[in-house]
Amino acid sequence: MSTIAADAKRPSYLTASLTLWSWLSTTDHKRIGMLYLISITVLFAVGGLAATWIRVELITPGGDVMSADGYNKAFTIHGVIMVWFFLVPSIPTVLGNFVLPLMIGAKDVAFPRLNLASWYIFMAAAIMALYFMLVGGVDTGWTFYTPYSSMFSNTHVTGVIAAVFIVGFSSIATGVNFIVTVHKMRAPGMTWFRMPIMVWNLYATALVMVLATPVLAISLFLVAVERLFGIGIFDPTLGGDPLLFQHLFWFYSHPAVYIMILPGMGVTTEIIACFARRRIFGYKFVAFSAIAIAVIGFGVWGHHMFVAGQSVVAAVVFSFMSFLIAVPSAIKVYAWTATLYKGEILIRTPLLYALSFILLFVLGGITGLILASLALDVHVTDTYFVIAHFHFIMVGASVSAYLGGIHFWWPKMTGRLYPEGPALVAALMVGIGFVLTFMPQFWAGYLGMPRRYHEYPEEFQIFNVLSSGGAVILAIGYALPLVYLLWSLKYGERAGENPWGATGLEWSVPSPPPEDNFDRTPIVDDEAYSYRPYAPQVAQRDPESPEHHGGPR
Questions:
Q1: Where are the stretches annotated Disordered (predicted)?
Q2: Which pLDDT value is given to residue 9?
Q3: Sequence-ordered list of residues with C-beta below 8 angstroms from that of 40, at least 6 positions apart, any chain
């Protein structure tokens, strides 16, 4: 792969203009990615504080800290913030925005102004949601199940629904931008089967964003209409059908699982190929499996409704589809394992997060097959087994991939290296803390502990004590990166353009990249992941030295 890097003496996107207005009015995809990074980090902290409050309450069987109503509001804050304002947008908007144009040799996304508008829409929706949840609260949970949400709850349901409705436009805008960028702005020679797997996965994610999000939007709009005007859409006393909402909601929300997990699979692929020093095993199968997951994901929503009253025939079909979607997921896991086999493994922080992603994704996936089995699902529905499964996939795997990607591309994003020792400690704490937090919930759920209750029988206390203890370790593990990554901005060693010795166009430009990425359009003439023996560029303390802008191709 050959390319002409941008002139090393030109200002980077970080130093081009340091005024606040230059950032708030920017159309540079890299700066927009950093804006998302800052806002999403703040929202993650808010959602994490709500989770901490929940775990404090659940240490003891009695309702010692919160009332039932307060507990409902606390887990709704946690769910709404974490799902709609962190897990869904995190990797696409932060890492996707930053690396996608660089990976395909483009100077920006297809619609830079739309990209900036998507961040403003996101921020407006986030502020709106926080206002309503902190002022009066919402007690419906993040799923807004009807008819309670549409007719009976006396909390700020309409305001929060409006916020989630608005943030959907941000997702659609990002998805459209990514699709057009991949189709129209690839560098000469960057064929579909020379694209990095990360690009394939972001493309598949964008398809789901564009096709599924409008269904969620209209579902929430109908809830607001019924709530405001008393029109019988979901309320059975008015001639409505509450199951209709569940069908519409999960038609989006299960594909939304793959909005959260597909980009993480792309991050994991990039990291494993780099630190195993090998071309990804079964490249075409891995690429097509991303599209297969996106497509099949639209046909599994009914497994959330096995006990809701749907027909037996429909339940069997949805069960089969839920098992079927495990096939392309298993292809990816097999490919990662085969790539690592006999690889020239270099243990670094991003690889630890990638391995954590694989472990947690496999455990979450296996327990997902239990929930896809009709008889077993009846037993564990609405118990902590479902909570544990959901968190293993959506939090454990997704956040591990997110942190792995942040660490992998941090030298490129900032031009600085973080301290490896504290980073390794944080990665281990996240993995250990997560397993200790959520593994006991599988046992508690299997034994019958229901979710969404702030009081529970005493025999379940040991599981909750273990979960709350693990949550302390997990919280420290999540907080540590914020400390040492901020420290690295001033004190970290300067990173050359390719500190990992990775392949890919993003590693051929200076760190941090110039405003317009490339001074001339690169020409791609190699396959993806054409790794040679490991020879990483040594970080240079002098940014003006010629070696600072060299590095392996």
A1: 534-553
A2: 60
A3: 85, 86, 89, 90, 93, 94
